[in-house]
Amino acid sequence: MKVLIVEDELELLNSTCSYLKKGDFVCEKAATYFEGEDKFISYKYDIVILDINLPDGNGLDLLKFIKESSPETGVLIVSAKNSLDDKLKGLDLGADDYITKPFHLAELNSRVNSLIRRKKFAGSKNIVFHEIEIDPDAKIATANDKQLDLTKKEYYLLLYFITNKNRVLTKEAIAEHLWGDNIDMVDNFDFIYTHMRNLRKKIKKTGANDYLNTIYGLGYKFGD
Amino acid sequence: MKLIDKTRQTYIIFSIIIFIVSSVVIYFTLNNVFTKKQDQRLKFHKELIEQKLKYEYPLPIFEVDDFISETPIKDTLFYKDTLFLHIVNGVEKREMYRELTSIETLHGKTYEITTRDSKVKNEDFVLVVTLSVGIVILLLIISVYFVNTIMLGNAWLPFYENLEILKNFSVENNKPIHLQNTKIDEFQELNKSLIKLTNKINSDYRNLKEFTENASHEMQTPLAIMQSKSEILMQSENFNRSESQQIKAIYSAVQRLSKLNKTLLLLSKIDNQQFKEKESLLINDVIIKHLDIYEDFIENKKITVTKKSTLDVHLDANPLLFDMIISNLISNAIKHNIENGNIDILTTDLFMSFSNSGKELQGSSESIFERFKKESTASNSFGLGLAIVKKVCDNYNWKINHSFIENQHNITIYF
């Protein structure tokens, strides 16, 4: 998967890129409108992560250009303005998703992955991690070929973990992913713990390995 | 006291004084003038008699009484007013007379000559003149009073209208004021100054709002960098426990800051009317969606939720803002609830109300809608939830009300 990130803040560009590179992505960076346009013309990308506010042009114009020249490319808009206006304009112009600054890198990664799934770039649509498999269309998860009886929240939690495998996820990022960023109850992380415990129990019951690790003081990590 | 009443009062007091004084002055002046004329006439008659005494001695007409005076008498003239008995048609009547008594020495004899003239005619005349002049003055005063009242009323009318406009002035709706025109210089000047003042207030307020919004915007990117960098740092496995805890502390602080920033940005955007798009929303759908999101929290406190609605109520509002209202009201009802408590939601086409069991407020009902107002200092929230709800309601001219009856908090929004 090739991803182009167009973002004028170099530091943010670098960290986004280095986080995504940990997955199966090849990441390219562009810091200006011109650079972004130039790279897009020269190479083919599956996904473009596009900041709307660029120093030498409007990201929405670049979006129009991208969608005109290569409609199958998935575009995710990043904006510092949490305005419905920008969002609607972006989605009207063919953007596939929208995220507001500041964001969790894990959230961005999960959005990019879900975008790829929707676009069905990858041959097999199922997400596989060792003996655990997720069918995102049917919203069904199996472990050791046995179907897991998961609640909605547990399913999304598992999907989020597998998409961000081998990365440390904080409770804040998980809470925001499960309940949305408007929720004003960050002080109550017990629910995450409850969901985690149930998920762990259900996976273990099938005889699968427990890949959920608690990282002391930071959060959780799903991986070997 | 109103200015118009004050001027009226002063006017009346002065008019009465002037009226009385002028009447008195007219009366006495006239009286004086007539008395002088009468005196002249009496003197003339006396001189006539004197002439007669001198040349037609002895007098043919008059009877002259002789009497002897003990004191030596000098030649004198003496005027006085006297009452004189008078018989008219058999009725005795006392009338005022003017009398001149003069003592003259003629042909070696001393005469006392008394001439008298009735004052009744004069008095009547003076009274009639004084009265008619008084009536004219009174009429003048009354007409001036009414003309003044009407004129002042007209002149002050724009002033009162403008006062009403000023009372309704609010910086929040950011509209320039339109004052009534007036032809009076002072009021025109006042209007000019007021318009200048309110324009300045409006532009200052706008600048302040823009500054807040810009500052919040500019903070988003550095916050995003801080957040992403701390997330990247956390992925590294080369830290010991205490180091990673410190990184986590930075991360959590950044989280808190960016949440606060997002909320403040939202408030200033509502202020700046940046949520103009409206959609027809089904209130119940929005409520069900958010009850679903908060399911875990509701179950955790074992809260019973009941939802009643008259019918499918549609509402024209911005979906983002309405989501915000419902989300905040539900989260509020959960947060300030007790174990095994209840939440009752009622929606009609006129209002929607959220009731929940809970402890009594420490502050007043109004203060819960203020920014950064928290019931518990321990909680991690900012106390901005209900401030947002209030702001959105203000934006749509909805009335919001909180009450606490029988251990039930109730927040009702009237559309």
Low-pLDDT regions of chain B = none
Q: Give the rounded overall mean pLDDT of chain A.
A: 86
| Main sheet properties of chain B | 5 strands, mixed
Low-pLDDT segments of chain A:
none
Helix content of chain B: 40-55%
Main β-sheet, spatial strand arrangement of chain A = 2-1-3-6-7
Q: Using the CA coordinates, give the radius of gyration of chain A.
A: 18 Å
Which structural class matches the secondary elements of chain A?
alpha/beta
Proportion in helices of chain A: 40-55%
Quaternary structure state of the chains depicted:
heterodimer
Order of helices and strands of chain B: HEEEHHHEHHEEHEEHEE
Supply Rg of chain B.
49 Å
Trace the largest sheet of chain B across and list its strands: 5-7-8-10-9
Q: In total, how many beta strands of chain A? A: 14
Intertermini distance of chain B = 41 Å
How many helices of chain A in DSSP terms? 8
How much beta of chain B, percentage-wise?
A: 15-25%
- Most residues in contact: chain pair: A-B, 47 and 53 residues
Domain count of chain B, please report it.
3
Estimated structural class of chain B: alpha+beta
General description of the model:
The complex is a heterodimer of chains A (about 220) and B (about 425). Chain A has about 220 residues and is an alpha/beta fold. Chain A folds into 2 domains: about 1-120, 3-Layer(aba) Sandwich (Rossmann fold); about 125-220, Orthogonal Bundle (Arc Repressor Mutant, subunit A). Chain A is about 40% helix and about 25% strand. Chain A has 8 helices and 14 strands. Chain A has helices at about 10-20, 35-40, 60-70, 85-90, 105-120, 150-165, 170-180, 190-205, and strands at about 1-5, 25-30, 45-50, 55, 55-60, 75-80, 95-100, 125-130, 130-135, 140-145, 145, 170, 210-215, 220. A 5-stranded mixed β-sheet of chain B has the order 5-7-8-10-9. In chain B, strands 1-2-3 form a 3-stranded antiparallel β-sheet. In chain B, strands 4-6 form a two-stranded antiparallel sheet. Chain B has 3 domains: about 5-145, no CATH class; about 185-270, Orthogonal Bundle (Helix Hairpins), CATH 1.10.287; about 280-415, Histidine kinase-like ATPase, C-terminal domain (Heat Shock Protein 90, 2-Layer Sandwich). In chain B, about 55% of the residues lie in helices and about 20% in strands. Chain B is rod-shaped and about 160 Å long. The interface between A and B is large, with 47 and 53 residues.
